[in-house]
Design brief:
With 132 residues, this protein is an alpha+beta fold. It has 3 helices and 6 strands; from the N terminus they run ααββαββββ.
């Protein structure tokens, strides 16, 4: 079984993200994940834009995958989201970057864009590593 298959199997247990929102894991690496979702009417607000909560859920899930796969159990303690623009495409893509990996905490940056390259949001998430 590949790392991607293992990650999809384990994080498939996050039913809100995977079943309700439709997020999938596209890539997995050391302290890295790329996740995406197809934008449907269920993700849109009354104006037709993607709901902020959907964008945040995608970022939070990407953080969870990148900070927990083959790593100590980690939970988020703070998050900051900056909305940059509206998605113009049909798919949101979220990529994580490890900024700092400390003894008990970590900091990740999450970039979200659409498949056309439109920047949608930048999120920072601080995680706390829990004792095993």
């Amino acid at each position: 079984m590949t790392d991607l298959e293992k990650a999809r199997e384990f994080f498939g247990g996050d039913l809100y993200a995977t079943k309700m929102t439709g997020i999938q894991i596209d890539e997995i690496g050391e302290h890295y994940a790329c996740c995406s979702l197809e934008i449907t009417r269920n993700h849109q607000n009354a104006y037709g834009g993607v709901m902020g909560g959907v964008v945040f859920t995608l970022a939070d899930y990407t953080f969870a995958v990148s900070s927990n796969f083959n790593q100590p159990k980690t939970v988020s303690v703070t998050s900051q989201i900056n909305f940059i623009g509206m998605a113009k495409g049909k798919r949101l893509i979220s990529k994580s970057t490890l900024i700092k990996d400390g003894r008990s905490t970590c900091l990740y940056g999450i970039d979200i864009s659409d498949e056309l390259g439109t920047k949608v949001a930048f999120i920072t998430i601080t995680g706390m590593k829990l004792n095993k």
